[in-house]
Amino acid sequence: MSLNIQSQKKIRKMKAKWKTDNPEEYEEMEKALMKRIIQNKEQNVKGKVRIIAGTAKNTQLTIPKNTRPLTDRLKTTVFDILSSDIQKKDILDLYAGSGSFALEALSRGANSATFVDASKSAFNVLKQNIQKTGFDDKAIILKQKVEDFLGNKENLEEAYDIIFLDPPYKKFNKKNLSEIENILNMSKIMLPGFKVNNKKKFKGAIILKHPRKYPVENLKLDELLKIETYNFGLNAISIYIVSNKALT
């Protein structure tokens, strides 16, 4: 494994804080640390991604530092599932990062996209990527925490047909699922199916990107139905729709 000098210094500082004189315990702690470093190197990718299809096809998108971009394979799968459901829809991209998902949706005929991310680097990259793709008139960027956005009652009055969620990995606590549960249960309020009881209209969908081993089956979600989970290496996406219970 290749580590630069700065990384080596950080590792030495971390090890210096360990309080153990037991060689076996030290070795286990060292193994655990190296495992985390390898996972982070796999999850945080620098570089560029592209728009796969539509009016902005092959446009290269810059991604913010320490962001896990959507792979072409993942995006292709999601948009094959959505198919024509993306046409003329309003998109909400939470923890937007590069905005790859919502920009792909706009390229394929979505009506509008709202990007929410608290990071300054993400905000600057989003502006660049929106200009590159030419969707300035269809995009809104909100530089704020997703939790603050969802906690604003005025925002919850808005309706979005498709909501994409790509929370930071630190939020996926396998022992305490409440953080992801809350985000999903608050987000769902903005789906059309919770606004108007019209069984003939598109009721909306939430797409959650999460670690493959995160127990999504144990999430306690009100009136949301998980229809499928698709695995992609270390990552996975789960798709939720408005359940029939919400329409009664």
Structural account:
This protein has 248 residues and is of the alpha/beta class. It has 2 domains: 5-43, no CATH class; 48-247, Vaccinia Virus protein VP39 (Rossmann fold, 3-Layer(aba) Sandwich). The protein has 8 helices and 9 strands. The chain has helices at 5-16, 23-43, 72-82, 100-107, 120-133, 146-151, 153-156, 178-187, and strands at residues 48-50, 60-62, 90-94, 112-116, 139-142, 162-165, 205-211, 224-232, 235-242. The strands form 2 sheets. A 7-stranded mixed β-sheet has the order 5-4-3-6-7-9-8, sandwiched between helices. A two-stranded antiparallel sheet has the order 1-2. The longest helix is centred in the N-terminal third of the chain and has 21 residues, at 23-43. The radius of gyration is 20 Å and the shape is globular. The N and C termini lie far apart (56 Å). The model is unreliable at 1-6 and 41-46 (pLDDT under 50).
Question: Could you say how many structural domains there are in total?
Answer: 2
The Cα radius of gyration reads 20 Å
CATH fold title of the largest domain: Rossmann fold
Shape: globular
Report the strand count: 9
Main traits of this protein?
single chain, 248 residues, alpha/beta, Rossmann fold, 2 domains, seven-stranded mixed β-sheet, two-stranded antiparallel sheet, 9 strands, disordered N terminus
Question: Could you give a quick summary of the protein structure above?
Answer:
With 248 residues, this protein is α/β, with parallel strands linked by helices. The chain has helices at residues 5-16, 23-43, 72-82, 100-107, 120-133, 146-151, 153-156, 178-187; strands at 48-50, 60-62, 90-94, 112-116, 139-142, 162-165, 205-211, 224-232, 235-242.
